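Bumping with the actual sequence this time:
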Amino acid sequence: MALARASIPVGIVVRRSPGVTKWAKWAWKVVAVVPGAGPANWRELRREGDVVDYHAATLTLDLWSSDTEAYHVALASDPPGVCVVLREDDAPDARMPWRPAIVTASPYEGQDYLDSGDGLVERVTMPDGMAAWVADFVRRHHVEEPFVKRKRDKKRVDLVEDGKGDARVRQLSDVFRAPHGYRGGTA
């Protein structure tokens, strides 16, 4: 079966608010995604005092038929969500400290980015229209794979005592024996 793919442009909305400690002047958070958004580069959307919402960028959300199980998990969560990864923008001419890098509907992929510590990873609620689009893709392409229990082999691995001590160091006797002349107790 051929691998199927569907894509949609997704606008990333990032909120900048005052930091709560003296060490962080600003707090950054992805607060929304906008399906079908046009291109943007940190365009200001809304301002309330020091809190500003930006349309930071528009990324492509790709769905793959090989990942439909993950999309099903994302749709089953309450509420359904997508994961957005922001990476630090170290370019000397960067206007903002973060750069939207990835958007994914797979919670497994989002968890991988979260585990790697590579940037700022945020889970954002999936808009209803996007959730319907993802659900339709899953309905059309999901193939249930039967569970196959692994069978153990009958080989006995407890009969050989390899691996005691360091294999690179020749041992003439039992590596777990007490040193010569040791009588136990405290020194």
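The tokens above came from a reply further down the thread. The mean pLDDT is 86.
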